[in-house]
Amino acid sequence: MAMEINSSEMKRVQLFEVIGRVDSTNANELGTALDKSVDSGRNNLVLDLNGVEYMSSAGLREMVRVLKRVKRVGGDLRIANPSERVKEVFELAGLDTIFEIYPTQVEAVGSF
Amino acid sequence: MNDVSRLVIAARLDAVRHACDFVVEAAEAAHLDERTVYHCQMAVDEALTNIIEHGYTYQGNDRQIEITCQVEPERVVITIIDDSPAFNPLTHDTPDPAEPLDSREPGGWGIYFIRKLMNDVQYQRVGDRNHLVLIKQLPAPEVVTQPGDESDTFPVSLLETGAVKISPAGRLDSKNSPVLEKTLYSQLEQGHSRLFVDMVDVEYISSSGLKVLVSAWRRAQDNGGDVILSGLQPRLIEILEMVGFDMLFQIFPDLDTALAAHSKKP
Lengths: 112, 266
Fold this sequence. Notes:
The complex is a heterodimer.
Chain A: E1 3-9, E2 14-22, H1 27-39, E3 44-55, H2 57-72, E4 76-80, H3 84-92, E5 101-102, H4 105-110
Parallel strand pairs in A: 2-3, 3-4, 4-5
Antiparallel strand pairs in A: 1-2
Helix pairs in contact in A: 1-2
Chain B: E1 3-10, H1 13-29, H2 34-55, E2 64-71, E3 75-82, H3 109-117, E4 120-126, E5 129-137, E6 156-158, E7 164-166, E8 169-172, H4 177-189, E9 194-198, E10 201-205, H5 207-222, E11 226-230, H6 234-242, E12 250-252, H7 255-263
Parallel strand pairs in B: 7-9, 8-10, 9-11, 11-12
Antiparallel strand pairs in B: 1-2, 2-3, 3-5, 4-5, 6-7
């Protein structure tokens, strides 16, 4: 399996733990999972990237799209625990100033 | 002695992974550092994804893409050859700045990253094939960078309305962004919090330039002000949109329009 997404419902936050590789073959699955939460009115999202070894721009594109969507309804999409490489990719695109990025899942969840 | 390896994949998204693995293997065999390996993998992924999505428009199941990877002492050269219609990613279309965000294609990231991650990208149409060459310099021993001329700032003028106009020029990359930072911050420190940044002479902006803009924007907002952008080339607008900055900044086609819009406000 190239990518696995585990979603769990917290008090104020929907938490997504992503494991594996996010690229153009599966980025839409990630987007769909996030969309489903927003569809059901849960707009505070945390994406834990601890298990993501690789992410291409297809993954970023979905994340930016969902971020725009949740921001419009007063929610947010926050990132936890990206690897150094994934963090660098965020920085290259200037996304580190757009997304709130936390070193741990606990901090990201607690930030809401 | 150079190591050259070659791989042919079907022009399908689910085959891109093989090319990624192939490049990672070739790069690791040459003992390249983990960061360089990642950059090569991502550039190849982005390039192939673009070719399959836009070149073959997902109709390339029976077509083949050839990838060669050559590790030289100081650089890695990756060549990607495909027979989709001619497309030079280095001159790809810039969107119409008048087009509203929601109706635009969200694409453009791939090429952005290829150019960011690689040191040089070359395109050539050879016969009925596209040749895309990605070149990654291997990291050199650390070089101490010379600090730039400390007195350098971009031109600043105080307008009649009390607003401040700042006119950066050239490339806002990691080399020049500190100059912009210094210019913006010296105005903010002097109590000017409404800054009109006229970007008409800016050719290029990198993530370091974007960072300077956004941190100045935050600071200005904290002081009840704003950083207002104008005169951006379509390509720069595209970059700002890709990173979502169009949601933060007010962006106007030219300085006069920006000033006129603000003169109406109390």
